[in-house]
Each structure stands twice: as structure tokens, then as C-alpha cells.
Amino acid sequence: MTTLVTGAAGFLGSHVARQLVARGDAVRVLLRPSSTNRAISDLSLEYVTGDLRDPASLDRAMRGVRRVFHVAADYRLWARRSSEIYESNVTGTRNLLQAARRAGVEQLIYTSTVATIAVDRPELPDEATDAALEEMVGHYKRSKWQAEREVLQAAQEGLPVIVAMPTTPVGPGDWKPTPTGKIIVDFLNGRMPGYVETGLNFVGVEDCAAGHLLVAEKGQVGQRYLLGAENLTLKQVLDTLARITGLPAPKHKIPHGLALCAAYADTIFSRLTFREPAIPVEGVKIAQHMMFVDCARTQRELGFRPGPVAAALERAVRWYEANGYITGRAAKRLARARAA
């Protein structure tokens, strides 16, 4: 049986592809012409060049495929043209669903995000939480909310779709890096003078990928499954990184209002200098909300057993260090901290 994976060049998608190959599956991956395969270059894969915005390329990719893992997404908290995020995440997902219908695919695992349900509620949100579009902060969240609605509607119409909802994956192989990975890299390079009070649910990326395979094996069509491990504040994550590395954790808590002013100023300056802002406004607005969730249902129904997040953070640190993400001066500082 051939399995198609979209987004296999990315952080989570590469781990999903890797675990499918390790299991012995025949795996085909859809890669854009501009994508690099460095995250999966060592795997035995069939490559199809295409784009979620190109329906003809999706038809080619679907030929002979029985199962699809749609992991691809435009995960950016800033874009010069916000329409690009919707084109990939909403229109691209709609195109993929239509191609899956035409190909008679037997199962489609759609990778959504915790962001579509991690909203302010008296109790911890879970898969049953029904959030509104108005509660989504920023273009990434709004686009994923809209794409998830397309997927759930397709399930009601008979397409065999199941929704995987990763929380915040951390670990090795984050080449880009993701916005979360950038926080770790900034910490390692001494570029975090302070922190804002916020929190997320974290999960090791390898565990999250394994959760996708469990969703395919045991999940029910039309259902959503949270793939998360631990609710942690940003301060707790930074303190954990400090214990792993021996580097000092930032002690100064930055008020959200001050962080937002800095983000707006950075955005204006970035437009003048034609660069991406270092402090995305959307990221600061998201940080104003604790994105804690209850993942008990997935653990109970699918037998999902993620490992400790501290171990995943340590694997991430070792990987960033081995792959040149730490600058010369910071690398020496890290070496001294470890020797102390």
C-alpha cells in the first residue's frame, strides 16, 4: 500500500515520513520545486513534484495511493502577503480533499493544530471544545480553523478523514526552525533578555509523529485527536533549558503591553529594511493567552503515551548544537557552562 505524505520536508512531516518508512510502508512524498529534502534525504522514498495550489499535481501524487497524511502547512506568524498563508492552508487543503475523492483514497489523516481549540474557557479545552473563528488570533490560526472546517465537512460528506491535532512539537530536525524552535535557538545564543507570561502544551516531535500513526490505526472518521504531553509556561521551558545547558535563564518578565509595542516598532523597522520582523506582532498577541489543553481523551482512546518534554528539549538542544545553529561566541559560552 502506498502512503502519500505532504509536508515531509518540514519538521513534523519529516518525522511522520521517517516512522512510516521504519515501519516498512511504501512512502511517496509531495515536494514543491523550491523545497529541499535535507530532512529526509537518507530515506527510501518516492518523490512527486507539486504544490497544494496545483490540483493537477495533486492528481499525479494521488495515483495508486490508499492513505494520505496531510501534514503540510504554512506555519508562519508573519508574512509579507498574508494571502499566501490562506492559499496554502485553506485552498491547498480543499484541493487535496477533492483530489482524494477523485482518487478514491481509503484514509486521510489531516494535521490540524491545537490552536483551533486552545481558547479561553473556564475549564481546559479539549477535542470537544467548539471555538469560533473570532477567537482565532492571527492569520495562521484563522487559516487552520477554516481548513479544519473544510476537513470536518468532507468527513460528514463521506470522505474517510481523521484529524490529528499536534500541540507544540519540540525536538531534533527543526531545520527552518519553527517559531517554537526559534525560541530555543535564541535562548542558546543569548538573545533572550526576558520573557512574557504565557504557556503552551508541548510534545516531543517523535512522539507526535508516532501519534499520527496511532490516529491512522485506531482513530475514528470525523473525530479530532489532541497529540500533546505537558502544559508548561514559557518560564518553565526556559528554566528547563537552563538546567540542560547550564546557561542562565532570563529573569526579567516583560509586560505584554511593552512586548506588543516592541513588536509594532520592529514590524515598522522591518518594512523599511525589507526583512522579517524578529518580534512578530501576531506572536505577541498569541502569547497573551495560555494555550493549555487536556489531552486525556487521546491518551485513553488511542493509547498515546508521550515521553517527558524535558528529554525532547534536550534532544533539540543537542541537534541545534550539532547542526550549526549556535553562533561562535555562544557556542564557547555553552561549552564553558557545561564544563562548570
Low-confidence blocks of residues? none
**What class would the helix/strand composition place it in?**
alpha/beta
CATH topology category name of the largest domain: Rossmann fold
> Which word captures the global form?
globular
Instruction: Find the CATH superfamily of the largest domain.
Output: NAD(P)-binding Rossmann-like Domain
CATH architecture level-2 label of the largest domain: 3-Layer(aba) Sandwich
Q: Can you count the beta strands?
A: 12
How large is the count of helical segments?
12
Strand content: 15-25%
Biggest sheet statistics:
7 strands, parallel
Helix content: 40-55%
Terminal CA distance = 53 Å
Total domain modules: 2
Radius of gyration: 20 Å
**Main β-sheet, spatial strand arrangement:** 3-2-1-4-5-6-10
Topology as a string of helices (H) and strands (E): EHEEHEHEHEEHEEHEEHEHHHHH
CATH class of the largest domain: Alpha Beta
- The averaged pLDDT comes out at 89
Tell me briefly what this model is.
This protein is α/β, with parallel strands linked by helices.
What features would you describe in this structure?
This protein is α/β, with parallel strands linked by helices. The protein has two domains: 208 residues, Rossmann fold (3-Layer(aba) Sandwich), CATH 3.40.50.720; 92 residues, no CATH class. 46% of the residues lie in helices and 16% in strands. The chain is built from twelve helices and twelve strands. Strands 3-2-1-4-5-6-10 form a seven-stranded parallel sheet, sandwiched between helices. Strand 1, helix 1 and strand 2 form a beta-alpha-beta unit. Helix 2 crosses helix 3, helix 7 packs across helix 11 and helix 8 packs antiparallel against helix 9. It is globular, with a radius of gyration of 20 Å. The model has no long low-confidence stretch (mean pLDDT 89).
